[in-house]
Amino acid sequence: MTLDRKVFAGVTALALAGGVAPFLPAYPLTLLTQAVIVAVFAMSLDVLLGYTGLPSLGHAAYFGIAAYAVGILSTEHQVGLAGCLGAGLLLATATAALFGLLAIRATGTYFLMITLALGMVVWGLAFRWVSMTKGDNGIAGVPRPELGLPWSLSAPLPFFYFALVVAALAWAAMGVLVRSPFGLGLRGIRESESRMRALGYSVWLHKYLAFVISGFFAGVAGVLWAYYNGFVGPVDVQLVTSVETLLMVALGGPGTLAGPALGATLIVFLKNFVSVYTKRWLLILGAVYIGVILWAPRGVLGAFRRDAR
Amino acid sequence: MPADDWALELRDVSKAFGGLRAVDGVALAVRPGERRALIGPNGAGKTTLFNLISGELPVTTGTIALFGQDVTRAAAHRRAALGLARTFQITNLFPSLTVLENCLLAVQGLSPVKLAMHRPLTRYPRQEARARAALDEVALGDRAGATVKQLSHGEQRQLEIALALAGSPRLLLLDEPTAGLSPGESKTMAELVKRLDPAITVLLIEHDMDIALEIVRHVTVLHYGRVIADGTRDEVRASPLVREIYLGA
After folding, report:
1. Confidence tier at A144 by pLDDT (50, 70, 90)
2. B121 and A181: CB-CB below 8 Å?
3. What spatial distance separates the first Cα and last Cα of chain B, rounded to whole Å?
4. Is residue A84 part of a domain?
5. For a tag on chain A, would you pick the N or C end, based on fewer CB atoms within 10 A?
6. CB contact under 8 A, B108 and A309
């Protein structure tokens, strides 16, 4: 597909979601909002996994830290949207900048293990630093922000549109990023680091910047999530959240931004519908994942996409 | 000749892998514009020596200077910035990217554009023009839209050269450019190397003695990591030691 057609398809999907939203019953609308937010999270991981070839297993850390920042500031200190957004993004980015220093030295499975360990550190803090995070109880009653608009974001529909606009902006920004000269460099690193070094690239710097940027966009999703859910807890930073996001990227098609968005939507709906019937939802997710690896190793989008000629 | 006039100067360079000295006390000095071949039997340490020069591997002992500048401890990308480019014996490209994207990566590698992330690639027509010119130079212009996977082996070898040339290098390391090519393709490749700008210094590893001697005048022979002969092609050809261990005569 050419670039113009991709942009067209993306805008159509967003317009479609925006168009059907007013006619949806409450529960599907809630799920759609959730899908839009999680899509941003999955796309941020794809910048690392699909484009740069770095499989992070600790991505929930940046998502969760931004969510916690919003939760704590808005409940304990009554900080508004601008303050929460700024603090959430700054903390997520700063954490990624710190963790990147430790993780980027490693590659492959070792990178995976280090990001996993760092993610567990954040989970441990969320769970044990009770005075700050309220531990297992989590932070409840996160108020929706006031934008000074005629519509209150406490209502599901205005909040959906708020999330959709933020997600569209994040998608556009990441879309430009992966198509920029820098983004081409990331794909080059995915394919051959030694050749990139020989061509004059500081591979470390490229990877590090990708890591930090990816953390930033995970933070965007985390801020939205805290407002959407009204609750922030250790479950948001736990390993299962990171793994689920990794599956969304793999399911939808790594190395495309639309793929992870699609994967996120599928998994959010599947999870919520299936879990009505069974508690063994993760078993079904596992089966879906194995199916994808066996029959569509490049994800749902990858399966429909032929190599460009 | 003063030291800083050499394009490349190695002093007593060694590389040990555990107990094995793959490169053992090599001294080598190459003048700007020179065409030099590095030959030797399998396992002589030729590719290891290239990896030391390009910075892919650190030296165990010794010093390496590029254009008079000590780069012994410099990272590979810093050496590339000084004008060093290389090709790989085992084709080392970006397989799922298009031929043009491969070349764009090479063109922007030495320019600050490589860190630009606020505009799509299509907004950099100058880079694209340079990439297309580099492709035309190796007669791959009409394959720009194909992915590397779709290229024949011969075309991939040509692209290897195109990537190395795209950054306008001053010193070019060619690691068996004719590896796996048919005799006809090898000849085309030899012509290509001979046609290169005479200002570019070329260090060439070549298994095929006839091809090597066609391209260069000066030959260095490596055996078990040591330089055993160094001179014009006729001198090397005449050396009884080289005949014995390399030509097997």
Report:
1. confident
2. yes
3. 36
4. yes
5. C
6. no
The reply to whether B88 falls in a domain is no
Say whether B94 and A199 touch across the interface (CB within 8 A).
no
Tell me the pLDDT band of B75, cut-offs 50, 70 and 90: very high
Summarize pLDDT for A112-124 with one digit per residue, the tens: 999 999 999 999 8
The mean pLDDT of B178-196, rounded to a whole number, is 88
Tens of pLDDT, residue by residue over B27-73, are: 999 999 999 999 888 888 899 999 999 999 999 999 999 999 999 99
Q: Average pLDDT in the B233-242 region?
A: 82
B175 and B228 part of one domain = yes
Q: Pick from B114, B134, B166: which residue ends a domain?
A: B166
pLDDT greater than 70 at residue A229: yes
B188: in domain? yes
Are B86 and A198 inside 8 Å of each other by CB? yes
**Chain A residue with the nearest C-alpha to that of B90:** A195
Whether the CB of A309 is below 8 Å from some CB of chain B: the reply is yes
Greater pLDDT, B193 or B211: B193
pLDDT, position A307: 44
* Average pLDDT, integer, range B11-24: 92
Q: Which residues in chain B are contacts of A192 at CB distance < 8 A?
A: 92-94
Give chain A as a DSSP string. --HHHHHHHHHHHHHHHHHHGGGS-HHHHHHHHHHHHHHHHHHHHHIIIIII----S-THHHHHHHHHHHHHHHHHS---HHHHHHHHHHHHHHHHHHHHHHHTT--HHHHHHHHHHHHHHHHHHHHH-HHHH-GGG-EE-PPPPP-SSSS-TTSHHHHHHHHHHHHHHHHHHHHHHHHSHHHHHHHHHHH-HHHHHHTT--HHHHHHHHHHHHHHHHHHHHHHHHHHHSEE-GGGTSHHHHHHHHHHHHHH-TT-SHHHHHHHHHHHHHHHHHHHH-S-HHHHHHHHHHHHHHH-TTHHHHHH-PPP-
Asked if the structure places residue A6 within a domain, the reply is no
Q: Please count the structural domains in chain B.
A: 2
CB contact under 8 A, B56 and A194: yes
Asked if A161 reaches chain B (Cβ–Cβ under 8 Å), the answer is no
Render pLDDT for A11-36 as a digit per residue (tens, 0 to 9): 888 888 888 888 888 888 999 999 99
